[in-house]
Amino acid sequence: xSNSGPxxxxxxxxxxxxxxxxxxxxxxxxWITATAVTLPLAALVPQGSVRADLGVWxxxxxxxxxxxxxxxxxxxxxxxxxxxxxAVAVPFIGVTxxxxxxxxxxxxxxxxFGYYDSDMVWWTAVLSGLVVATSIASFGxxxxxxxxxxxxxxxxxxxxxxxxxxVMSNVEGLSDGIRxxxxxxxxxVGLTAVFAAGAMITSWILVLRSRPRSGSPEGRARVAT
Length: 225
Description:
The chain is an all-alpha fold. The chain contains eight helices and no strands.
């Protein structure tokens, strides 16, 4: 008697390295494309004292990138990936944090220099993009089928390291103290590193816990092969 219902990637056969890296490449390309395509859409949002257009841009980029991850997985693996609540919660938190960091950074730069220029904020200018990218990689780690988790885990680790480096580049300025108007931005920048590390630890623990044990029927089948 056969089971009915949609087939998921976790129910498929073995997944080779080439397919998981193809999925990672398509997902990365989708993130880059989403970043470029959603920019003119966000530009339609009126600009005021708060750069709402930047928040909309990051939100659209994050949502479109998640859709690309699932869609490319359907193409590469031939089935839809099951999505748990934690897999949605992690990128939601990351995108929200990225929006807050980007808006606070622009507000801080305009208050201190009179206008925003990426040359004045150095590597912090790319921090929100790194947070979004790492959030997408975390999503990929949490939804990836067995045999295809290495690629998103490596991307997630690289993103976490990059975020840590950007945050550490701001530590040197702490020797002069933090001005009151800089406190919200400083806290948010620090939280990006906490988020990236926490997302990586949480997702990796869940991945390791989901591995079949040697005593389980699936584990015995893997040993037998």
